[in-house]
């Protein structure tokens, strides 16, 4: 049987981000579909097809990759959707951060959560900080579960809380961009 320290190391290794794939879908007359793939110890400064911008269309430069530090730091700017993605290799870790317009997150959360309560605020915060649209469903189902389980229907919507301030990079995952990542399992 493994020691607790070895078990903890195994869990940590399983949770490490090992592969990151970002797909920028074909967008009107602006950019061609582009795929960016990064893996541990392989942080390319170009899309999978070798290009560094959005293709041959008129707005191709509204999507571009810039290598900040060779093999360690890449920045992808998708100006046509107001999004910046930073990908880094830090030691044994592959990380990413994304900045998106807050109004996109607000609109996504309002689709499922029309009342600006705790669930709505958590949805916006989670979507801005992770970019994972599944958080809109998580917040929605959390509210639905409370509706089913809580006897006092007047206390379902916790409002009047200060809205969280979000700083740094955020992620946009919509019709124009999709992101996937895998951990070693």
Summarize the structure.
The protein folds into 2 domains: 4-100 and 170-183, Mog1/PsbP, alpha/beta/alpha sandwich (Protein Transport Mog1p, Chain A); 102-155.
**Can you write the helix and strand succession as a string?**
HEEEEEEHHHE
Give the overall silhouette. elongated
Let me know the number of strands.
Answer: 7
CATH superfamily of the largest domain: Mog1/PsbP, alpha/beta/alpha sandwich
Strand content: 25-35%
Radius of gyration: 19 Å
Uncertain residue ranges: 161-185
Spatially, the strands of the biggest sheet line up as 3-4-5-6
- The count of domains is 2
Q: What is the CATH topology of the largest domain?
A: Protein Transport Mog1p, Chain A
Q: Which CATH architecture of the largest domain is right?
A: 3-Layer(aba) Sandwich
* Mean pLDDT across every amino acid position: 77
N- to C-terminal separation? 20 Å
Quickly name the level 1 CATH class of the largest domain. Alpha Beta
InterPro entries: RGM (IPR040287), RGM_C (IPR009496)
GO biological process, one term: BMP signaling pathway
Domain Repulsive guidance molecule C-terminal: 18-105
Pfam family, one: RGM_C
Account of the 3D structure:
This protein is an alpha+beta fold. It folds into 2 domains: 4-100 and 170-183, Protein Transport Mog1p, Chain A (3-Layer(aba) Sandwich), CATH 3.40.1000; 102-155. Helices cover 28% and strands 26% of the residues. The chain has helices at 4-15, 102-112, 118-130, 134-149, and strands at residues 17-24, 34-39, 63-69, 73-78, 83-90, 93-99, 177-183. The strands form 2 sheets. A 4-stranded antiparallel beta sheet has the order 3-4-5-6. A 3-stranded antiparallel beta sheet has the order 2-1-7. A hairpin with a 3-residue loop joins strand 3 (63-69) and strand 4 (73-78). The longest helix is centred in the last third of the chain and has 16 residues, at 134-149. The protein is elongated and about 60 Å long. The protein starts with a helix and ends with a strand. Mean pLDDT is 77; it is low at 161-185.
